[in-house]
Amino acid sequence: MWGAIIGDIVGSIYEFNNIRTKEFELFKPECFFTDDTVMTVAIGKALLDSKGNYYLFAQGVVDEMKYFGRKYPDAGYGGKFRMWLRQYEPLPYDSYGNGSAMRVSACGFAAKSLEDAVHLAYNSASCTHNHFEGIKGACATAVAIFLAKNGKSKEEIKEYICKYYYGIDFTLDEIRDKYSFNETCQETVPQALEAFFESSDFEDAIRNAISIGGDSDTLAAITGAVAQAYYGIPDDIIAKARTYLDDYLLEIVDRFNEKYMK
Q: Which helix (H) or strand (E) is 140 found in, with range?
């Protein structure tokens, strides 16, 4: 999960103050974790507690997101999601927002097969984001992570994504000056994946994502998750990111890594 968390932290200060360059200090003192990190860890905990049982995972996603939402009430949730958190028995609200993709990374890492990645991603998304595009964004992200962690090349990953999910027919240079803030999956996930496809290492992938503007923390969270699966993450970057999280979040991330990241 560190890739998504690092992307979120680095991008946190640029979400509403976009920059169009790759030249910036990676971690600034004013950076912070947002709802992207909180819900990423919530999904990770649901996976840990379900022990491979899909039914338990589907219910656990709802329970954990509600718990984490109450524990971190000021993390920056969208309006409809805040309403969902307050409901006793919350129902999906036909969302195609990029929240389904930014929180899904644990599913890609925990999956044992491509079909498993899709199934887990579906269950992580559909309790809120039951619109086709919301589910597609989560599944595309989890699939890219699964393929990357299993040694597929960027060309193979992109070919699969373009065949089954999004036709990515642009470069970052082509969209950097005109890409604007957008919270939908269909206008976030392809851009985040292209930031990975054009990268040379993990840090470069994060810088690519931030450099196009838009919903910077979520873009970088999605890009960072796939980049982690493909490149790994330098120890010094993880060490710095750890200083932004509290003990509760760190304990869950460490348990997830111990189980799924060996």
A: helix 132-149
Report whether pLDDT(89) > 90. Answer: yes
pLDDT at 162: 98
Three-state SS for 61? helix
Given pLDDT bands bounded at 50, 70 and 90, which one contains residue 210? very high
Global pTM exceeds 0.85: yes
Closest by Cα among 105, 107, 128 to 116: 107
Label residue 201 by pLDDT band (50, 70, 90): very high
Tell me how far apart the terminal alpha carbons of the chain are, to the nearest angstrom.
13
Distance from chain centroid for Cα 60 = 18
Are 101 and 124 spatial neighbours (Cβ–Cβ below 8 Å)? no
Rounded CA gap, 33 and 23, in Å? 21
Fold of 2-10+32-260: ADP-ribosylglycohydrolase fold (1.10.4080)
Q: Which two tokens stand for residue 234?
A: 């330098």
